Amino acid sequence: MTPTTAAQLYGVFFDVVPDFVEEFEPWFARRHAPDLDRSGVQALRAYRCDEGDHGFVNIYEVPGPEVFDNPVYRRARDDDDRLDRAESKLRGLRKATYAQRPVVPGDEAAAPPPWMCTLSFSGDVTDDELDTWTAERFAGSAAARVRVGRLAGLHPLFRDAPAQELLVLGEWPERPAGVAALPEALRARFGDRVDDVQYAVGRLYLAL
């Protein structure tokens, strides 16, 4: 897969019931991710989280939400006899596509950094305000790349899944520290203009 700066970010945030985790990761890596590769997804980064509001975060780069409504993708779903079982084991599922902007640009040709943090929320915050706040929060940090996104569309098969309007995504060469302070810092800056604030820190376990 080859990511492009024009691509949208597609974020999937979820937990897996504990007794299915060992089955989920091999299925995702060996079956579902290759199916996505063939269907038009440009890049995929899958993380297992050890801090925050989600057990897993998957970040994709896609042309747009329409990639999940093409015949190849629909056929892959129909042909995977383990997909329904896997999806039944997910909890707290949130998924949406975001128009992305770089705040701390990175080397797109480099191997993906092994750590990420996400901050997702809804609210009445302009792009300029979010870019400024994000740049301030990550100034002087060791982040390899930081991007922000605004909701651009929903997965056509999961339109009822909750989705937040705004996303901050940081990628790191080492495990980032202090991420738990981001939600409170966001609320301190924007007050009741933001809500449904969630964060996560995760380590990469699959990249395509």
Q: What does this protein structure show overall?
A:
The chain has 208 residues and is an alpha+beta fold. It has one domain: Alpha-Beta Plaits, CATH 3.30.70. The chain is built from five helices and eight strands; from the N terminus they run βαββααββαββαβ. An eight-stranded antiparallel beta barrel has the order 1-3-2-8-5-7-6-4. Strand 2 (43-52) and strand 3 (56-62) form a beta hairpin. Helix 1 packs antiparallel against helix 2 (71-79). The longest helix has 19 residues, at 21-39.
Total discrete domains: 1
Give the helix proportion (percent range). Answer: 25-40%
Reading the helices and strands in chain order gives: EHEEHHEEHEEHE
Describe the largest sheet.
8 strands, antiparallel, barrel
Low-confidence stretches: 1-5
Structural class by sheet pairing and helices:
alpha+beta
What's the CATH architecture? 2-Layer Sandwich
User: Over all CA atoms, what is the radius of gyration?
Assistant: 16 Å
CATH topology heading: Alpha-Beta Plaits
Mean pLDDT: 94
Shape: globular
> What proportion strand?
35-45%
The level-1 CATH class = Alpha Beta
* Major sheet strand order: 1-3-2-8-5-7-6-4
Beta-strand segment tally: 8
* Oligomer kind: single chain
Count of alpha/pi helices:
5
